[in-house]
């Protein structure tokens, strides 16, 4: 029995050592595909610099599994690019056979959007204007503090996280056929999130999971 226990402990330790030498990881965030408004196919890589530090870079290309429709946006193009610095916690206090690695992270995201609308309104200063057509530029910048846990197996890593931060939104219209007009609040086609030009800040909450393929050398 003692021999079996020693062998099992030795195997766990060997596997732990194997996990620790991960240098690069390719990962996929499946939940981002299911956003009905701005779904993306998000792929990324994570580079490990030490037991405590890693950097992750992700890029999301437009792809929707579900399309809510009815937004009135025409020619909607966008992408999502993220950069993240991870700091792993309690490395020296971890139980040797534990597969769970907790971390804190700082993440930045750039989310450019461009699209057009027809026969709608824009609010500038204190006046509403109606237009025949408008090209809208709507980039978003996000800075977040995240807490997460990586569960590391030999061939896959599951990375779960939650975050809280600040979202900075810019809205700019390039209109054709603009004229001052009464704002009809009952008009179904109004895009309330882009009707007002300017720069706006709001709370950003992130919640997600990534599945990674570790690469060792």
UniProtKB/TrEMBL annotation:
What is the protein name for this chain? Answer: DUF3575 domain-containing protein
Source organism lineage? Bacteria, Pseudomonadati, Bacteroidota, Cytophagia, Cytophagales
